[in-house]
């Protein structure tokens, strides 16, 4: 059942992307409204898929790659819809939906069978730690999209090549402010995610920190985002430099999330084994 | 025909934003020249009447001459000499229009059909200023006076009868559009004007109507800054306080008449840290430029000069194209009317020649007869003057009417003029 809803959500997201794309070209408001509604439907279907899976397995579906990726895409969609509701920034959908689709595609190619939870993971900390981390990933994925948009728009204005996209992208200030907000939300979540993970590690393995590759890379990612936030708040860094740093931060995050599990072995490598 | 009856040719030579970059337009504007450009050009012998138009987008010399070839060569040489640009560079960038094309061009310019932002209203005012300036130096005459007045009336007609200027478009409009793409909402932004001229004022009004929070007016003379800031509601500062004000300002519009740079890269760089790297948008609408172009390299700083704004206004072009077509048709109609007046101008020297010759004969014969007439009273002398005058006028009346009537008939006017010249033996004079 969960697969049925997952595929349906995937397809509906695809339709929504088409809508956002058409909106970017035509700039017709009804097209965007329709695309948003379609995306919302996709979000509901996606939620049903996750719920069905949770029901079926009896534990939060945040254990293997298929589940975690699907979860990130789900939260990203939700966050984007909330953001759109509040700020109504034009054409962000055209940049966000492809990323959502990409994550969905990555989730789709992963093994999807539901397996019983190994004893090491049977803890109240699993939903807390994993969910918080995955939400922060979703927030950072969103800030990545916004940073890419910022760089495109910034380049056009700086180089004075005011092409078709210029008219269609939001203002630099709006993108920068949005980026900072994402950072301010995502960073505390990531911090809490790491802290809860650490507490859980103490419970499961008797140690808070073990320099496991996943932990080390989490720390690197955390330090990187901490640096951006620090520079933003104290020195007032913003604009292009902040956007580039955000993009690098997100790439580090992807490595922490996915790369580490494939390339380096550690306590978290169970994820890739399911 | 003899020298004296050579036709007046209307010529226009110039550069605009389409044909020459700002680096070429700047020196051609002759801003720093010791002598008024219009006076300078008027001194060229083959140039009869002249008008010099210099705006941020164009520099043009409109003149008349009976020897256009020589006038053009000498004018270019003088222009090259005063601007410091070599003649080949000028040749490379200028456009030259003659008679019909020159008239059409000046009509198009006045109606703002040749402007970067089609329909912008400033150009008419600038052309009027240039004309007033030329009149002050008495460098215009019958032809240019008539041409310019016609151009003004064409512009007015275009403005009232088409929708070409219905949207507020101008350089400042384009600047505001761009500011919106950088800042989004302008309601919490502070604008700074450097230079309190007409351009700056216009831009300021535009920004205020778009809701900027604050306004700072910087000017060389503080008095003028205070005057403008009181009028628009803002703070006045001197030019030496710009750097401090940069910390507060988000949008800077510069349009001073200063020959050198008003804002340097170092100044802006220094201001960025205390501004906490907030985005800064600078618009340089002055020619020569006020702001160092290298400032655009600084992060989070965006500098646009007049040429750069072209891109922004490009968007509006299509919308205006339709109205512009209508306006161009109106210009063509007026052009035809003016050309037919111009043709009547061709016969004027001949008519003048006949009249002068007849008058000379009358005087000579009168003088010769006087000694045979003995002592005459003043009344009698006056009566004879009147008599001879009237005989001459009556004899010349029909030929003159005939010439005037056929003035606009291209086919026969040349033959008629030649015949008249031969019949009255005008060449020998």
UniProtKB/TrEMBL annotation, chain A:
GO cellular component, one term: plasma membrane
Known function: Required for the export of heme to the periplasm for the biogenesis of c-type cytochromes.
Residue ranges of coiled coil: none
NCBIfam families associated with the record: cytochr_II_ccsB (TIGR03144)
Lineage: Bacteria, Pseudomonadati, Thermodesulfobacteriota, Dissulfuribacteria, Dissulfuribacterales
Any one Pfam family match given in the protein's UniProt record, by short name: Cytochrom_C_asm
A molecular-function term among this protein's GO annotations: heme transmembrane transporter activity
Residues that span the membrane, as ranges: 6-27, 34-55, 61-83, 95-112, 124-152, 242-264
Entry keywords, A to Z: Cytochrome c-type biogenesis, Membrane, Thylakoid, Transmembrane, Transmembrane helix
Location in the cell: Membrane
Family recorded in the similarity comment: Belongs to the CcmC/CycZ/HelC family.
PANTHER family according to UniProt: CYTOCHROME B_B6 PROTEIN-RELATED, HEME EXPORTER PROTEIN C
Name of this chain's protein: Heme exporter protein C
Organism expressing this protein natively: Dissulfuribacter thermophilus
GO BP: cytochrome complex assembly
UniProt topology in membrane: Multi-pass membrane protein
Domain Cytochrome c assembly protein: 63-266
TrEMBL record, chain B:
Provenance organism: Dissulfuribacter thermophilus
Role of this protein: Catalyzes the NADPH-dependent reduction of glutamyl-tRNA(Glu) to glutamate 1-semialdehyde (GSA).
GO biological process, one term: protoporphyrinogen IX biosynthetic process from glutamate
Other facts noted in the record for this chain: During catalysis, the active site Cys acts as a nucleophile attacking the alpha-carbonyl group of tRNA-bound glutamate with the formation of a thioester intermediate between enzyme and glutamate, and the concomitant release of tRNA(Glu). The thioester intermediate is finally reduced by direct hydride transfer from NADPH, to form the product GSA.
Catalytic activity: (S)-4-amino-5-oxopentanoate + tRNA(Glu) + NADP(+) = L-glutamyl-tRNA(Glu) + NADPH + H(+)
Domain of life: Bacteria
Subunit relationships: Homodimer.
Record family assignment: Belongs to the glutamyl-tRNA reductase family.
InterPro entries cross-referenced by the UniProt entry: 4pyrrol_synth_GluRdtase, 4pyrrol_synth_GluRdtase_dimer, 4pyrrol_synth_GluRdtase_N, GluRdtase_CS, GluRdtase_dimer_dom_sf, GluRdtase_N_sf, NAD(P)-bd_dom_sf, Shikm_DH/Glu-tRNA_Rdtase
Protein name: Glutamyl-tRNA reductase
């Amino acid at each position: 059942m969960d697969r049925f809803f997952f595929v349906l959500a995937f397809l509906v997201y695809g339709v929504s992307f088409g809508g956002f794309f058409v909106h970017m070209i035509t700039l017709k408001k009804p097209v965007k409204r329709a695309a948003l509604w379609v995306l919302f439907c996709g979000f509901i279907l996606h939620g049903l898929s996750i719920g069905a899976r949770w029901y079926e397995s009896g534990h939060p579906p945040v254990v293997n790659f298929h589940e975690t990726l699907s979860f990130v895409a789900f939260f990203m969609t939700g966050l984007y819809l909330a953001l759109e509701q509040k700020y109504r920034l034009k054409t962000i959908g055209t940049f966000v939906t492809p990323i959502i689709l990409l994550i969905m595609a990555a989730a789709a190619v992963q093994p999807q069978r539901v397996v019983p939870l190994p004893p090491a993971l049977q803890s109240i900390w699993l939903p807390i730690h994993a969910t918080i981390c995955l939400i922060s990933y979703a927030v950072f994925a969103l800030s990545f999209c916004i940073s890419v948009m910022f760089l495109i728009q910034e380049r056009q204005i700086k180089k004075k090549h005011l092409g078709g996209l210029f008219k269609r992208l939001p203002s630099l200030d709006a993108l920068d402010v949005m980026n900072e907000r994402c950072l301010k939300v995502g960073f505390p979540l990531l911090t809490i995610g790491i802290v809860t993970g650490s507490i859980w590690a103490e419970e499961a393995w008797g140690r808070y920190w073990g320099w496991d590759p996943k932990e080390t890379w989490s720390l690197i990612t955390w330090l990187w985002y901490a640096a951006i936030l620090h520079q933003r708040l104290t020195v007032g860094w913003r604009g292009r430099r902040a956007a580039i740093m955000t993009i690098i931060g997100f790439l580090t995050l992807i490595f922490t999330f996915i790369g580490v599990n494939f390339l380096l072995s550690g306590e978290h490598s169970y994820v890739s084994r399911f | 025909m003899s020298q004296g009856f050579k036709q007046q040719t209307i010529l226009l030579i110039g550069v605009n934003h389409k044909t020459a970059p700002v680096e070429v337009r700047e020196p051609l504007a002759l801003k720093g020249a010791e002598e008024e450009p219009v006076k300078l050009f008027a001194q060229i012998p083959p140039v009869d009447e002249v008008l010099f138009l210099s705006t941020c987008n164009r520099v043009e010399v409109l003149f008349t001459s009976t020897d256009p070839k020589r006038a053009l060569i000498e004018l270019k040489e003088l222009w090259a000499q005063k601007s410091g640009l070599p003649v080949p560079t000028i040749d490379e960038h200028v456009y030259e229009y003659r008679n019909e094309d020159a008239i059409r061009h000046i009509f198009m310019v006045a109606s703002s059909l040749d402007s970067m932002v089609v329909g912008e209203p400033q150009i008419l005012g600038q052309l009027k200023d240039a004309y007033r300036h030329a009149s002050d130096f008495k460098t215009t005459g019958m032809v240019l006076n008539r041409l310019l007045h016609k151009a003004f009336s064409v512009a007015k007609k275009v403005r009232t009868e088409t929708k070409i200027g219905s949207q507020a478009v101008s350089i400042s409009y384009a600047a505001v559009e761009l500011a919106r793409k950088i800042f989004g909402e302008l309601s919490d932004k502070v604008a700074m004007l450097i230079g309190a001229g007409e351009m700056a004022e216009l831009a300021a009004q535009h920004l205020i109507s778009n809701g900027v929070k604050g306004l700072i007016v910087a000017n060389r003379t503080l008095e003028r800054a205070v005057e403008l800031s009181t009028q628009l509601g803002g703070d006045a500062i001197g030019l030496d306080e710009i750097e401090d004000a940069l910390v507060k300002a988000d949008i800077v519009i510069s349009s001073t008449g200063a020959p050198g740079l008003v804002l340097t890269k170092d100044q802006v760089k220094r201001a960025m840290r205390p501004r906490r790297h907030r985005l800064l948008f600078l618009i340089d609408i002055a020619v020569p430029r006020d702001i160092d172009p290298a400032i655009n390299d600084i992060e989070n700083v965006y500098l646009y000069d007049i040429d750069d704004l072209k891109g922004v206004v490009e968007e509006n072009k299509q919308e205006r194209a339709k109205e512009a077509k209508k306006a161009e048709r109106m210009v063509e109609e007026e052009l035809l009317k003016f050309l037919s007046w111009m043709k009547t101008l061709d016969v004027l020297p001949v008519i003048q020649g006949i009249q002068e010759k007849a008058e000379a004969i009358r005087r000579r014969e009168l003088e010769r007869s006087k000694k045979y007439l003995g002592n005459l009273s003043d009344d009698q002398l006056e009566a004879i003057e009147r008599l001879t005058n009237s005989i001459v006028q009556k004899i010349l009346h029909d030929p003159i009417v005939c010439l005037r009537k056929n003035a606009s008939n291209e086919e026969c006017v040349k033959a008629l003029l030649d015949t008249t010249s031969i019949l009255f033996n005008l060449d020998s004079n």
